[in-house]
Amino acid sequence: MKKELTPFLTENYISKEYFCDREAELALLKKYAQNSVNITLLSNRRMGKSALIHRFFEDMEAENYACIYADIFATGNLKELTEELAAAIFKRFPQKHGFGRKFFDFLMGFRPVITYDALSGSPEIRFEHVTPVEYETTLRGLLTFLDTQNQKIIVAIDEFSQIAEYPEKKTEALLRTVVQTLNNTSFIFCGSKKHLMLEMFNTANRPFFSSTLTIGLDEIAADKYTAFITDKFAIHKRTVDSEAVAFILDWTLRHTYYTQFVCNAIFADGEKKIGIDVVKRVCDECLRVQQTTFMQYRSLLAPVQWRLLVGIAKEGSVTGPQAKDFLRKYNIGAASSVKSALNALCDKEMVCSIENPDKTAYRVYNVFLMRWLARTIKSL
Ligand SMILES: Nc1ncnc2c1ncn2[C@@H]1O[C@H](COP(=O)(O)OP(=O)(O)OP(=O)(O)O)[C@@H](O)[C@H]1O
Ligand SMILES: [Mg+2]
User: Fold this and answer.
1) Is the pTM of this model over 0.90?
2) Ligand 2 centroid vs 362 CA: distance in angstroms?
3) What is the CATH number of domain 301-376?
């Protein structure tokens, strides 16, 4: 029997059919892009930033914008940034005629080595320049060339905070100068390392200070997600109880990736009538398959970090990690050591912060790990 394609994606983007809501964010993105306002898009990991960019690009391509997406997570210096951006532009304009031809001829002036990834078929570009100045010239040249072609362009640079890790500390300033001179191109700078991103865009002595408007992504509203999940199962002739959907949303905290993952697993499970028992069984399976990985964290973390992590998991979220009651309850130790343990857990992306107007709460980043710790670890 042919396997049904899942309507619940856990990676990549296919089309808007698979995408839930974000109408308010899409409207804002559109308004800003139409007014050539550059945007910073921020959220915790796996909330849906990259998917939102692709969803937005689907609409904007239909309105004749040329949308370029570059993920610079794997880049470590100016050379690799230039190569990644060049490849992203080349991928958008692969045609051997019209603008594609013009861009190709222009690109060839920088003597690139073009190869194609054996698995994905995506183009990869390497420049063999000798000096950093040549990379600066290439980067500036490519973006300026694009900008002068009478075409509205949107460039999204995903995992943008990576730039702060480059040895060429001038890259931020270089990019800011280029961005400032373009007329037909607007930018979306996207990232999950909130403190790094905020430092880049909100600190007065940084090149990008106050140059963008920020959009933050929170959880998708419960009513919208409920309708999406119910509809997607219904299209595939499955029914799901409202109680079961409420459980999914609550158990995954509506953190998009985890909600998608659980729905995907329920779909794969194949039941036609999905009640709360099915959902609980699948959630349990989601934890069991990751148990071996989760168990290793204890030996990878310092004892105080481990106890703090378990304490936060068991509480769900914690606003006062240095409060006496909390420290005593989970045998964490002195308040003085909690701050550095918390910073370490945040740096390792094991704990994330949720900023509310009056206070900051902390929770375990990986919702499955949180559920597993809360139920499995008995004593500390
Ligand atoms: N609105 C949505 N509707 C349905 N699925 C979504 C939605 N947003 C995101 N997803 C799915 O959730 C998963 C996580 O989303 P995505 O990778 O876009 O998050 P991210 O914020 O870019 O994460 P990271 O910070 O790790 O890069 C993906 O599988 C994506 O397909
Ligand atoms: Mg992403």
Assistant:
1) yes
2) 21
3) 1.10.10.10
